[in-house]
Amino acid sequence: MLLNYFKTAWRSLINHKAYSALNIFGLAIGMAVALLIGLWVHYQFSYDRFLPGYQHTNQVMYRTVYNGDILTQRSTAYPLAEVLKKEVPGVRYVVQTDWTSSHGLVAKEKKLYLNGVTAGPDFLKVFEYPLLRGKAGDVLNDMHSIVLTASTAKSLFGDADPIDQIVRIDNQTDLKVTGILEDVPTNSTFQFNYIIPLDYMVKVQHWGTQWGNNSLQTFVSLEPNVSFDQVSANMKMLLKKYSVDEYSIAKSELFMQPMKQWHLQAEFKNGVVAGGLLDYVKMFSIIGLLVLLIACINFMNLSTARSEKRAREVGIRKAIGSHRNDLVFQFLLESLMITLISFMISLLLVQVTLPAFNALTNTHIRIPYDSAVFWCILMAYVLLTALLAGGRPAFYLSSFQPVKVLKGTMQTGKAASLPRKALVMVQFTCSVALMISTIVIYQQIQHAKDRPTGYDAQRLMMTDNSPDINQNYEALKNDLLQTGVVASVTKSSSPVTGIWMTNNIREWQGKQPGESLELGTTAVSDADYFKTTGMTIVAGRNFSGNLGADTNYVILNESAVKRMRLKDPIDQIIRWSDPVKVQKVIGVVKDALMGSPYSSVPPCMFLYNPDWANVITYRLSPGVPTDKAIATLTTVFNKHNPFYSYRYQFINDAYADKFRFETLVGNLAGVFAVLAIFISCLGLFGLAAYMAEQRTKEIGIRKVLGASISQVWLLLSKDFVVLVVLSCIVAAPLTWYVLQRWLQQYEYRINISVGVLLITALGAVTITIITVSFQSIRAALADPVKSLKAE
Question: Where are the domains of the chain?
């Protein structure tokens, strides 16, 4: 009997090739989308799970109350590590790190400039990245040691044994290789090529170690049998005990975030986790399920629409003794066969499109063919899809009464009409919602991109500082200007596209009791900063370039002046930092978009402090070809920084990076919206073909009685158009509500216009008309003589 079911299913596929192709191809696309999204979701959830002790690893952070708002900060002070070890029971290991480290490494003739991590000696005890050579507890004990990843060691030393070899860092200090790590997996929150001992930076580079200097990240590994809540409660009040900052003493507290949240829940609001990538993981999971549902609806509709073709078969099988359960099993087996074929095609589609998908999403996803768990999940996926797609047709077809079927008195088409229409509405409601979402996301990105930045990014470039560049800065600047390819040069503590430092302002004129203020801080090295970046001073004056005098001055941006309520800011005095710095305001600069393009410009101040400046910014002269300029710049930088290759970035590219994630979301939503519409149209095409086939004689009679081609076209098309219009009416308010909530996360945002909803609805109706018109016009042009011949 089972063999008979397979033969029947196969004959049904072969005898109705067009409908089978629509079913299989539509379902394959839906399954491919769902599988691709499923792999992406699994990749995101897999972050850091490869580390043996990830469930016991936490980051220590602190939250502070500023003017009624609770701000969360990941950076902590150097003395905190020792306090945690001594005073918090249940803490097994503590490590502090700096993840912003990029250094030049030289070994014999090999020169590399790579990102690394500066970390305390217990780093590899807290983060158990696999060591190929060395012991986790020993490799970072010597302040003049370095641990390399396998690929970095290969690049520096080739096939030679790297252990005990010497690596010169920043052309300043020799470090000895004490360990080799496996290359860090791509699904690791932290990406680095080497580890440098924290003691080296503290003792050799003279990093600040006082409580007021929050520049390091602190991580703890808990004892296995210790409660997270208990440890978190014990460390909560440590800042009040040790911090010298008056605001930290009164309004700050420590807390921990577990490692499993770092990648997906990195955003905080009012001191608690408020979302992050997890929101988009959930969103795309829903999109994947919707696209799969749309494909399954095609299968249901085409199967039930063709029920009259199978009615006699059902009647005969029931008449000779088949039970309803037997028929349900038969039709589900047919569904499983189609689903298996679709699945094999979908697996091929995923394999072909995966490289492009990885490039689009900046991931390294692969299909784990060697995983038994993966195949078990896929088998369950195929079975559930087969049940979802074939469940309704199986139970519907098996319900036919044999007496009515064999007498020819049963009209199945009308019985299935209403559910079919409802399912078509569901399809297009989902598709229209995705179309609207894609347009709104694109508009929001463009809205932020078109926002005035307050600086001129055209032909503006930047290069990271290095010890050699720092020592030779004035000579480098003179040589760059003398080449003629550079119009101006400056140096600052952060690029014009970012704010890397903040400071607590203690006093200013008009400060209210209990009020506090954090100002974003940029240190500049000369008076050419505002000229080079294109920022505009709107009041007062610029720095003079006199180091002795300018270190006593500060320039505020407009947001800082507004936030401090300074009616006449020039010559006002502010006090900040520890020890307290007293500085006079000499100028006000127009607000520049140095932070998020979706948020308001934060209050900022600009200081004159060459020692803090570590980013070289320079503007190319007008009319100089970029390739010629790069060649000249390479020669000049190599002259003053001979140990490392010339590295640069255009400010335009750095600014574009701010939109990377939103652009990714928009691109993915657009791709999935197109696929959803395409799958829906496949279903409409099949239904239109079937309806035209069912009404062949009616169309012939109408044409004989004088109906025109347009009237026949309208007869066959109007039902589908009405369904799509109703779908748009349902989708528009639902999507508007969801997108309005999504937009609330951005301070600088668009308002969703009615025009977007109308244009999307018009597009959906137009696509529908084009899809069904082929079958409608084909039926209208058919010869009525042939259609009216007796069977």
Answer: 1-47+270-410, 57-262, 433-450+659-790, 460-657
